[in-house]
Write the structure tokens for this entry.
Amino acid sequence: MTINTNKEGEKLTIIPEGRIDTVTAPEFSKAIDDNIEGVKDLVIDFEKLEYISSAGLRVLLTTQKTMSKVGTMKLVHVSDVIMDVFNITGFVDILTIE
Amino acid sequence: MEITLPATIENVEKVTEFVNAELAKINCPAKAKAEIDIAIDELFSNIANYAYNPEIGKATVKVEVQENPQAVVITFMDKGIPYDPLKREDPNVKLSADERGIGGLGIFMVKKTMDSVEYEYKDNHNILKIKKNI
């Protein structure tokens, strides 16, 4: 997978491309951890994401818990396939999806 | 068609590619393909993490395409410790972020997205069979 990050002041945008699965979830997690310091506005752009498995959901949950304390986190460009995953797992109620 | 290889996390991708090659032959729709790929990730990584821990054993993944109605059947086999993932209690998906753990979410997704999931322990093998109607 490829992960693009864009940080402007307190705003961080993360754009993962490919799949977030057991193999790649640690990379996704690291991309967030490496850039999250001082961030109050986190945007995760799923436009180029094929799918996400439970390993990736674990990262989203952890990150959501962190961001809830210091600012906001939102997901944009979520495809139908990934929306189904969020619906099935109840993550639709935990995450902010635009 | 089947593939036998060491059950390691790194090999999840090989199994996914192997199955996707079969899915391409039947023009599997993108949504079903994504759901199958997620199921492979959840089930094969479970075998990699737990079946032979701390050793590394082998696993076999078999793909069959059924006709009328068209369906893909994928069977995961390993000789690790007997484990029926279907016995695991479903997670409570109504809890808030702070209350939630993440355990059991993978197999729960597989159960929800596949048309059938069956487990059997036979001849010293864990046999998990998933079926997705296409």
Notes: The longest helix of chain A spans residues 54-70. The helical segments of chain A are 25-35, 54-70, 80-89, 91-94.
